[in-house]
Design goal:
disordered N terminus, seven-stranded mixed beta sheet, single chain, 13 strands, 13 helices
Length: 357
Amino acid sequence: MRRIAGMALAVLLLGGVITAVLAGRDDDARDEKSTATKTVRMVIGSEKADFFADAAVKRALAAKGFTVKAETSGSWAMEGLDLKGYDLAFPSSQAPAVELAKRYKVRGTLPRPFYSPLVVVAHKGAAQVLAANGLATLDTGHRGTLKMRPYLDAARKDRTWQQLKGAGKYGELSGTLFISSTDPESSSSGALYLAATSYVANDGRVVADEKDLDRTAPLLRTLISVQGSQQSSSDAVFRDFVSGAGNPLVLVYESQVAALLAGGQTPDDLVVLYPDTTVNSDHTAVPLTENGTALAQLLSTDTTLRALAVQHGFRPQGGAAAFASAGTYLKQQLTGVRQAPVPTSSVLHEMARRARG
């Protein structure tokens, strides 16, 4: 009897071991599946390229099971791309995102993980001349406010740098006074420049119909035509400015300046001018697959990724206090800066078409 009982106990123990091994294999399989890396292919505005290329961002995404393959495009130019096979489109503003959502039948609220206001970067001499002529005010040696109405009045009159007092001692300040921007037909920042300037030109009312378009078109055409050839990427115009090439006044995203400063560069010749009327660029995600949806939600909610976005100069939605200004260059709070409403996508497209002539 003892022998039979011993054999029975051995069988039970062996059965328990086998069950435990099988259960462990199931757990391992589940764990492997839960940590399996999801590859998300997406097209993004060029201003976010450095963020997604950052090794710290890649590690944070990998910790959540994601790897990202990002390609850059002008935000409005995304409408002309075939996004079959992509998981996510991530333009730099809401208007092109809404159009993409309509095209690909994406329903629901589109995630907007972070935003960045448009600013004008100026060489120090140019900023001082603008201030001396009533076109700007300076808070510090590296930060100030661009007065949009006086600037647009100067643009209407085709004023030159030589007509501004104090400009003569700066050899680089010559020719027509203008702000360089990107192509409004392919780039979001260029289109948003028209949104802000048209709002001021239309006496503080958003351009909404044919009458408004007719009223503002001549000035917008002046603002664009004086620039000659325009680039389709805000990243390109900013790099040109930092290298010392091109125009002394350039429209960029605040995030681009913040990223430059976070990288340890503090150019003495750089002044950041916040237009007193501007447009915030809401970086809006358009999820095209389940993986795209998951990544967009992660960018909006994960504390590590939100902190990394701040390091790259973006302002997280609902987290203004998290944005730390870089010394005397940037504003932490956007006080004194009026936000202009953005026209509908169809109006903005027509505005850009007329401005390009």
